[in-house]
Amino acid sequence: MTQHGTDEVGILSIAADDQPWAAWSDDMLLDLKLCDLRLDLEGGFLSEQIARLYSELASRRLVFRPHFWLSDEWFTPDGIPGIAIPFYLAHPRLARLELSQMLEVEGGTTEWCMRILRHETGHAIENAHLLRRRRRRQQLFGKSSQPYPDYYTPKPYSRSFVLHLDIWYAQSHPDEDFAETFAVWLDPESMWRDRYRGWPALKKLKYMDQLMRELADVPPKVSSRQEIDPLSSLSKTLREHYGQKRKRYGVERPNFYDADLRRLFSDSAAFAGNKTAAAFLSRIRKEVRRKVAGWTGEYQYTIDQVLESMITRCRELNLRLAVPEDQAKLDFTVLLTVQTMNYLHSGRHRVAL
Questions:
Q1: 292/284 Cα distance (integer angstroms)
Q2: CA end-to-end distance (rounded Å), the chain
Q3: CB 5 within 8 A of CB 109
Q4: How many CA atoms lie within 13 A of 291 on its CB side?
Q5: Gyration radius (Cα) of the chain, Å
Q6: What is d(CA 95, CA 12) in angstroms, rounded to the nearest whole number?
Q7: Kindly report the CA angle at 6 between 304 and 278, in degrees rounded to 5?
Q8: I need a surface site. Which of 44, 55, 204, 237 has the fewest CB within 10 A?
């Protein structure tokens, strides 16, 4: 997902000790079942974001309001006009656990959370008004019956799609294209008419504007309040949950990067007294990982595994710094970005939401 820091306006900043497990260690918490967290959406961070979303919908005279529930991840089920929100956003202690396990808290700041909420509302309003059946919708975005890919190959320079969540995420499937376009249209600060002037994507945004004007003051056709996989029904432990999640967002062990690493660092005796490349990369690991994630839209966890492989290989090759640290950091950041882009362009970019 598009990266945003978990900062002072995020869930981590909210103090809460109202749960018996709030003071537990990570190791103790990981053995707790999801259903035993006994959380709800009331109060705090999520309530504020949902209220803001409802206000944005009201400002467009849209009657539809998605319902929400807690689950193990973000998703909008097919046919359901509602949205599942990951449990870790309901309590700052769980957000800290998410950070320690996955290196980031997806949706953990106000801006990031609102971006995802607008996107998921795009899916939910399609379900509520049966919009996928409309001929013009199918002509502009494609048919929902198109299979979802496990991975997709983005076209970074295409102007036929809006940019909202992940870079190029709208390209992954017609339904994601619709949801991303809706999110840009709904965002009161997007200035989409100016931002996308001259882009083929503007045609989709103008259609969205017309479509939503037609739906103003119109009650939704589907009003189900069904919840799929609510937190109270999930009996897996947090340890099992994160094991599955890390596997999902992991990478197969990449090929060694010997040639690239030898161009950046050296095993020559002339540099034997310099800092090891492994130690240097370990020190800048967090900074570089975040920067590359922001540039590429890839998950920090995925990038970190590539970094780990590179650090291991530097250690095995006994490589050391051969240039000033500032230059080495810049050169390595470029290398890691290139490797990540190669990973994306190889058709391995994951469909996550």
A1: 12
A2: 9
A3: yes
A4: 15
A5: 22
A6: 6
A7: 25
A8: 55
Taking the domains of the chain in order of start, what are their residue ranges? 11-238, 253-350
Q: Which helix (H) or strand (E) holds 46?
A: helix 44-59
Distance in angstroms (rounded) separating the CA atoms of residues 13 and 75: 25
Compute the distance between CA of residue 9 and CA of residue 275 in angstroms, rounded to an integer. Answer: 38
The rounded percent of the chain whose pLDDT value lies above 90 is 72
CA distance 133 to 122: 15
Number of H-type helices and E-type strands within the chain: 13, 6
At residue 195, the pLDDT reads 96
Angle ∠(292,298,303) on CA atoms, nearest 5: 60
Mean pLDDT of the 40-69 span: 95
* Helix (H/G/I), strand (E/B), else coil: 31: coil
Please say if the pLDDT value at position 347 is more than 60. no
Burial of residue 47 (number of CB atoms within 10 Å: 0-12, 13-18, 19+) = middle
DSSP characters over 125-184:
HHHHHTGGG-HHHHHHH--TTSPPPSEE---TT--SS--SSSTTGGGG-HHHHHHHHHHH
Q: Which two tokens stand for residue 247?
A: 């596997």
pTM: 0.79
Strands 265-266 and 320-321: antiparallel
| Mean pLDDT value across residues 189-193 | 96
Dist CA 191 CA 205 (whole Å): 11
Structure token pair of residue 190: 């997007």
pLDDT at 6 over 90: no
Over the chain, what is the mean pLDDT?
Answer: 89
pLDDT at 247 over 90: no
The runs of H, that is alpha helices, within 161-317 are 174-186, 192-195, 201-214, 238-248, 258-264, 277-296, 300-317
The better pLDDT of the pair 250, 208 is held by 208
Q: What is the mean pLDDT of residues 300-308?
A: 87
Predicted pLDDT at 89: 97
**Nearest CA-CA partner of 201 in 178, 224, 229, 227:** 178
